[in-house]
Amino acid sequence: MSPARDLDWRDVFEQSSARSAVLLPDLTIVSVTDGFARCFGLPRSSVLGRPLLDLLEELEVPQLDVWRASFERIRLTRAGDRFEVASCAIGTDGGHSALGVVNTPIFDGGGNLSCIRHDLEMLATSPSDEQVASGGQGARVALLEERVEELNRELESFAHSVSHDLRAPLRAMDGFGRLLLADYGDKLEGEGREFLEQVCTGAVRMSGLLDDLLTLSRIGRASMRHVDVDLSGIARRVVDDLVRKEPGRSVAVDIAPNVHVIGDPRLLTTALEQLLGNAWKFTRPRAEARIAFGVELTGADPPSYFVRDNGTGFDMKYAGKLFNPFQRMHGADFEGRGVGLAVVRRIITRHGGRVWPEATRDQGATFRFTLAASRSLELPAPRVDASDRS
Amino acid sequence: MDRRNVILLVEDNKDDEILTLRALKKNQIVNEVVVARTAEDALDYLLGQGAYQGRDPALLPQLMLLDLNLPRMGGLDLLRRVREEHQIRLLPVVVLTSSKEEEDIVRSYSLGANAYVRKPVDFNQFIEAVKTLGLFWLLLNEVPHGQAR
After folding, report:
1. What is the pTM of this model?
2. Under an 8 A CB cutoff, do B98 and A171 touch?
3. ipTM given for this complex
4. Three-state secondary structure along chain B?
């Protein structure tokens, strides 16, 4: 018997610095190397058992379609597949400008797909990384901070365009449309007035969408402070506001007392406004609406906070799309432009936590989130330079 | 002609100029409106120089409506200049712009803007905003004697 038989191959694999993962045919991660986990800046325990694409989506990895297409090809051709993605700065272990992804299908004796080995190769390190290699950790941090600042400056000017330049033509559309309606409306026949109304409504709606984009971008770049935050108090105030705006509704609200966390009070207020606002909105058809906020402590896991309602819920089939901006689960019956949960996810991610839904169609929804105590994932606060724009 | 009840509109966008004038008209605000398409032009008007040589700078407009995004010299630079020029430093300035970026608002106030109003895309709301502006700045608000009135 060869001595190698006695080795625990799983241990050997997982201690590798290569960046590899083993996926089940449904793309659930069953094993990862230290290199892979490090590359995402996450502990192994928070990666195992999760669908790879969900993880990538949560980390806001771009070009996810390219990843999906590769797995599709494997299914069709039963052959290994390789692709490259440009400018993909995954994880915390460097500023690599491109990533090679190799997917290798592994079949069992009966020819059925048993698992997929998923290998990441860092390609084309940018020149500045060589300086980093010689300059050590300090230089690397400085370089990353510089890149973050550069990105923030770009975002800043993007936000300014969205806020100002893109709105002016919309104002002209609605303004001149309204003037036309007011001054020449009687000359329009049949559906003419209606069509013109639609043009104006469209312009105003688009300006709302621009505001939403701006909100999303602002939340991504807002500077954060970490202080004690009384989530119960915030939830209470948010619900009081909702009641004030719609006093006619009867909603049983249950808010767990004394839930305190460490986080940014302004951002966490925004997150609870969105979650409780959704619960309020989607319980509107219920004669006996119920909304709850609370916390669950389960063993060693970080506490999970939740907002639960007995509203219209949704089909979990669409849960993956829920957090994308402008995705809506409901038609015109419910107001909104589909940006609230994207805002929530961005806030929770910035706190190093995650947020996920549990729902059944027509039977309510629960949104849970965690907030990591670790601050290692936090980006430096964007700096607003007052002198670089006139 | 008495130029003391003038509204100085600093706006480079022709569409916005027309819409602002119409919104004023719809609210029966009949003050004379002087339109400056650039910050430089506005400054010439206020200081009575360049094309406005001979105009008495002591006759301050009752109100300046100021867009921020202007070609070359920006709206905020103009605001800074106005507050630095002794003769015109008390001019009431309402920033009337598309942006509601916190940064623009803070910078406007720190340079001495008297108010900051975001131009709504919805024209009916815009008319309402202009109505409120006119009511407050042209009717209710008192300015120092000898400077404006």
Report:
1. 0.58
2. yes
3. 0.81
4. CCCCCCEEEECCCHHHHHHHHHHHHHCCCCCCEEEECCHHHHHHHHHCCHHHCCCCCCCCCCEEEECCCCCCCCHHHHHHHHHHCHHHCCCCEEEEECCCCHHHHHHHHHCCCCEEEECCCCHHHHHHHHHHHHHHHHHHCCCCCCCCC
Q: What is the pLDDT of residues A6-44, one digit of tens each?
A: 778 888 888 888 889 999 988 999 999 988 888 777 788
Which residues of A are less than 8 Å from B80 in CB distance? none
d(CA A140, CA A37): 20
**Do the Cβ atoms of B15 and A172 come within 8 Å?**
yes
Q: Which chain A residues in 171-200 lie under 8 Å from chain B, judged by CB atoms?
A: 171-172, 174-179, 200
- C-alpha A12: how far from its chain's center? 34
Window A:193-252, CB contacts with B under 8 Å: 200, 203-204, 207, 214, 218
Sign of CA dihedral A71, A77, A81, A83: negative
Beta-carbon contacts of A29 under 8 Å, excluding residues fewer than 6 positions away, are A21, A22, A23, A47, A48, A49, A50, A51, A52, A55
Residue among A175, A200, A218 whose CB faces B19 most closely = A175
- Partners of A230 in the β-ladder: A260
Cβ <8 Å between B98 and A160: no
Distance from B104 to chain A by nearest Cα, in Å? 9
**Which residues from chain A sit within 8 angstroms of residue B11, using beta carbons?**
none
All residues of chain A having their beta carbon less than 8 Å from the beta carbon of residue B121 are 167, 170-171, 174, 203-204, 207
Contact state of A160 with B68 under an 8 Å Cβ cutoff: no
pLDDT along chain A (390 residues), means of 10: 68 86 91 84 83 84 82 84 70 58 88 89 58 62 82 76 83 94 89 92 89 82 86 96 92 94 93 95 92 87 91 85 80 78 91 90 91 48 41
Contact B76 A390 (CB under 8 A): yes
A355 touches A323 (CB < 8 A): yes
